[in-house]
UniProtKB/TrEMBL annotation:
CDD domains: PBP2_LTTR_substrate. Belongs to the LysR transcriptional regulatory family. InterPro entries: HTH-type_LysR_regulators (IPR050950), LysR_HTH_N (IPR000847), LysR_subst-bd (IPR005119), WH-like_DNA-bd_sf (IPR036388), WH_DNA-bd_sf (IPR036390). This is LysR family transcriptional regulator. Keywords: DNA-binding, Transcription, Transcription regulation. Residues 25-82 form the HTH lysR-type domain. The keyword Glycosyltransferase does not apply. It comes from Streptomyces spinoverrucosus. The keyword Ligase does not apply. GO terms for molecular function: DNA binding; DNA-binding transcription factor activity. It comes from the Bacteria. One of its GO terms (cellular component) is cytosol.
């Protein structure tokens, strides 16, 4: 009797009992493997690291040899993790961030008062929310450095946190994210940005119904602020037309001030006053406020310098320090 063939998702490279240690695996092997799983491409990771695809592949193959099992499957459009690869990727993504954080803390202890804080956020957030805090922080910690990394969405900020590439992420708060702790710092009411000569500029407020069929300047659809705005307007039965798309709030404000359209934006203080003489922000009180604040992997493992910077930004935004009050820990 011939036994039927059995499919095997993860064909073993060699047999043997599970190893209790990985003999020649390095942290770089694990980092590159995690990057390959995230990108789904060996060549993309090679480009990011400015090395050859063969060099990237060797890191993955070394892991496979040590574990005795295939970790990725190659397809015409890239690579995907096997079942074992998914298990390792999940463990690596969770563990590497903590290891990198610990190594940085040790380096800071060795340097004394020096050290750095790595922050990721959008292109305009530093100007609107952190400029005074940066000056204050450097006055208090002259030997410390701040490293800002620009991302295009809250999702990419979360990815940077999970990978251990940054300590803090300043984000628009949306749905909970597993493994991330967040704290609200500011509430931002919505307003309709129009040119001073626009008929709507004299209105005391704008109702959601006033936006029906209005042609608006919109943020990218993958942004948290855009998705929340779309959701809230849809709940009111409003379907505005976004006929112009911009990458950030400041560009939307510029176009509105030039009379090239209307934009629903958070009413940031910097946009009122002599800096924007031809701009009017008409409140939309019926819309729920937009919230922004800090996201971290874990507040209790944050370095003193990173916590100090987070608290300084919160203080300058007019809120209580991030280290006080209840901590909303996102599951």
């Amino acid at each position: 009797m011939v036994n039927p063939p059995h499919s095997q998702v993860n064909p073993p490279i060699h047999s043997g009992t599970p190893k209790q240690y990985l003999g020649v695996v390095t942290l770089d092997d694990l980092r590159i493997f995690a990057a390959v799983c995230h990108a789904g491409s060996l060549s993309a990771v090679a480009r990011d690291l400015s090395c050859t695809q063969s060099a990237v592949s060797q890191h993955v193959k070394r892991l496979e040899r040590e574990l005795g099992i295939s970790l990725i499957e190659r397809h015409s459009r890239g690579v995907v993790p096997t079942q074992a690869g998914h298990l390792l990727h999940a463990a690596v993504a969770d563990g590497l961030g903590g290891i990198d954080h610990a190594l940085r803390r040790i380096e800071e202890l060795a340097r004394g008062e020096g050290g750095s804080v790595r922050i990721t956020t959008g292109a305009t957030s530093v100007r609107h929310f952190m400029s005074a805090a940066v000056v204050d922080f450097h006055r208090r910690f002259p030997q410390a450095s701040l490293e800002f990394q620009t991302e295009t969405s809250s999702r990419s900020c979360y990815d940077a946190l999970a990978a251990g590439r940054v300590d803090l992420a300043w984000i628009t708060l949306g749905p909970p994210v597993h493994g991330i702790e967040r704290r609200m710092v500011v509430e931002l009411p919505w307003a309709l940005a129009v040119a001073a000569g626009d008929p709507l500029a004299a209105r005391p407020f704008i109702a959601p119904a006033d936006l029906q069929d209005t042609r608006l300047i919109g943020l990218p659809e993958n942004s948290i602020s855009r998705s929340q705005l779309d959701s809230w307007l849809a709940e009111s039965g409003i379907r505005p037309v976004f006929d112009t798309s911009v990458a950030d709030w400041d560009t939307a404000i510029l176009l509105a001030e030039l009379g090239l359209g209307h934009a629903v934006v958070p009413a940031l203080p910097d946009w009122r006053g002599p800096g924007h003489p031809h701009l009017r922000l008409v409140p939309i009180p019926a819309l729920p406020v937009l919230t922004a604040g800090w996201a971290v992997r874990r507040w209790d493992t944050l370095s003193p310098l990173a916590r100090a910077f987070a608290d300084t930004v919160a203080e300058h935004c007019g809120q209580q320090p991030a280290g006080s009050g209840p901590t909303p820990c996102v599951p």
